[in-house]
Amino acid sequence: MANETLIDKKVIVFQLKDEEYAVSVQQVGSIERIVPITRVPQTANFVKGVINMRGVVTPVIDLRVRFGMEETEFSDSTRIIIVYMDEMEVGLIVDAANDVIDIPESAIEPAPEVVGTVDVDYIEGVAKLDSRLLILLNLQRVLSNEEINELKSVEG
Amino acid sequence: MDTTQYMDVFIDESNEHLEVLYKQLLELEKNPTEKAIIGEIFRAAHTLKGMSATMGYNDLANLTHKLENVFDGIRYDRIIVQTEMMDVLFETVDHLNAMVEDIASGGDGKRNVSQIVTYLEKIEKGDQLEQASETPVNSAKQDSLQTITALDEFEMTILNESAERGFSNYEITVMLREDCLLKGARVFMVFEVLEKLGEVIKSEPSVNDLEEEKFENSFTVILVSKQGEQEIKNKIKKVSEIENVEINHFSNPYNYKNTNQQNDEHQVKEHTNDQTEQPATNAGKSTGKSSSSKTIRVNIERLDILMNLFEELVIDRGRLEQISGELNHQDLQETVERMSRVSGDLQNIILTMRMVPIDQVFNRFPRMIRKLARDLDKNVAIDIVGAETELDRTVIDEIGDPLVHLIRNAMDHGIETPQERLKKGKPEQGTIRLEAYHSGNHVFIEIADDGAGINKDKVLNKAISNDVISRNQAEALTDKQIYELIMESGFSTADTISDISGRGVGLDVVKNTIESLGGNISIDATAGKGSIFSIQLPLTLSIISVLLVELNKEKYAIPLSSVIETAIIHKDQIMHAHNKKVIDFRGKVVPLAFLNDIFNVPKDNTDDSDFVSIVIVRKGDKMAGLVVDSFIGQQEIVLKTLGNYLTNVFAISGATILGDGQVALIIDSNALIKS
């Protein structure tokens, strides 16, 4: 049993468009409903702004835009996943947050090279579970500052 | 005695006394005959000695004792203050400082000070040869006679006061006969006699132990009395089974009294000239004590927690104000108003509690300058103005190093050598003026020297050769901008790298530190006359007053510290100057910045009114008009950062949470004004 938990990876599964993504549960602080967002001017287009997260001003980014998908209106199922990474606290806007599941380490495969058109450096791997395909995110890459700075200099 | 719990207090107080020593020594150097200064030094040394002895740091106590001896000599004109002496004295205090530091970091405060002790002893003996033979005898006596040393503050106060009122303090040692049977009863009788004569302040062993006969056959008491020694002695001797009574004038070990003064019975004839200075000294000491007892020490962490809690309260206060405004319920409104007033007062108190005088930073500069001047062979005086100016504790903690850097810089590059100064027709002694003052919500610190100023051409050439700027850029710069180049990274004008400054990582660090504190620094100089570095700092870092404005539906906050005024002007008043929109504001041409455009605020069908709202802001002596859609009003807000993810957002210095729970961004108007 102990052995099993050791090789299992607990993840939060969320939805973007019709694909399912996963981030490690250890990096997630909470899952929130949409709250009013204050726009921050002159930032990358995927930075939606900042929210008041129980007294802490927390930036939120729209993962759809971050991953190059088309933007949609927020709906009832839209969620903000608060993640912690390297002293940073960031909210990720996703279409829906479905559940928490254990993925056996053995089910995780490295990201296939052919996966797609977007730069895939923020994908850590892919897990196939029954009929579901979960894309495991590398949060560090998703939140990398270089990306923001790059975009900023293009805009500015 | 377990002294660990007093450790913090000991360190704090020792540092305070060391500060006094440094400060007064510097004063003494200027006025070598001023008795008040000498007295001050003497008291500081004396207290330090007492404290360190109590805490068991003997090396510290011994060295302080030596220092004290020297000042005792100075006090009674046995020693004349000379310049050569000052160096030794400063060095002594440096040693003491090092010891205290060692203790503070967990060491035992031991240090090899034999050389300095020799010097001190030389000073002590040098001018008082005729007394040299006598002094050791007396101090030896002091050791053997003074059996009671541990006095608490209360007892000390009584002793001090009694001396002022003309009572005498006696230390009486009573020896009972060895064959005495009822020791307890004899003690009781002696005490009865003593109580009639005066007041027993302390006894050793304690009264309880004496009553229970827990002592050998002698005991010592301190008696305050108006009676003469002989009389007391005779009265005590009337009690039977008393072997011997010894009476000395008691000199409080914590409160200095000349050693001569312990008039041992057998020495009375030699020392008839009793000191009259003692009551005066005591009076000064006791008043000093009572005034300092009105403060308590609070851990800075607790103040920080208090501040954090209060910040939360400020946010809720904003929320309450908003709700009561919406509900329009009279009782509620009155209550909320009252609460706002009270919490406003509370805020002031909490903020001032965290304020400390900048003297804490300034006071180490005189001795630093003294030392540097010696190392550099320059003659420099320091002039400190406004040391009582108060600043938030967090700012104080950060500002020390930048100031040290600037002063070193002024010493090294600014002030010339005495020869050069004479050649230029300046006084031989250079001056560094350090000034602090409040203005609005800011504190200004100026470091001015009357040295060579800044060589513009040299700065420019260096900047160009170090690729700080290009030759083309250089031509467009104003004098002030050129001076400020020396704070760019990768710039150092010292021709030779010296130990004092000019290691290439200098002024840019200073600039960064100050800017990270929300302040800024500017430089002005006149060739041959000197240079001025002015630093502007916010009074506090966490709660600020802002003007809330609206851009379409978005709310922004502009710090009031940079707002000059607000205005609503007609569109026709906007003029065009070289493709820029400007207005004539009280006779000055002020450029406009349209915040809607700068912040890309989404436009909805703007109702084209003929009037525009403008916030006039300033940065230094420059102004700009920020065009907004409407003003909301003034509010106290708690400054929050945008977090580590969003860093360096253009023209936004942070965020705050408004009463309705929404986040509003704080505009950094400095970024909107091009300097």
UniProtKB/TrEMBL annotation, chain A:
PROSITE patterns: CHEW. Residues 8-148 form the CheW-like domain. GO terms for cellular component: cytosol. It comes from the Bacteria. InterPro entries: CheW, CheW-like_dom_sf, CheW-lke_dom. GO terms for biological process: chemotaxis; signal transduction. Coiled coil: none annotated. This is Chemotaxis protein CheW. It comes from Virgibacillus oceani.
UniProtKB/TrEMBL annotation, chain B:
GO terms for biological process: chemotaxis. It is an enzyme of class 2 (transferase). Residues 251-262 have a biased composition (Polar residues). Its EC number is 2.7.13.3. GO terms for cellular component: cytoplasm. It comes from Virgibacillus oceani. Residues 543-675 form the CheW-like domain. The gene is cheA. This is Chemotaxis protein CheA. Residues 332-541 form the Histidine kinase domain. The modification Phosphohistidine is found at residue 46. GO terms for molecular function: ATP binding; phosphorelay sensor kinase activity. SUPFAM superfamilies: ATPase domain of HSP90 chaperone/DNA topoisomerase II/histidine kinase, CheW-like, CheY-binding domain of CheA, Histidine-containing phosphotransfer domain, HPT domain, Homodimeric domain of signal transducing histidine kinase. It catalyses: ATP + protein L-histidine = ADP + protein N-phospho-L-histidine. It comes from the Bacteria. Pfam families: CheW, H-kinase_dim, HATPase_c, Hpt, P2. Residues 1-103 form the HPt domain.
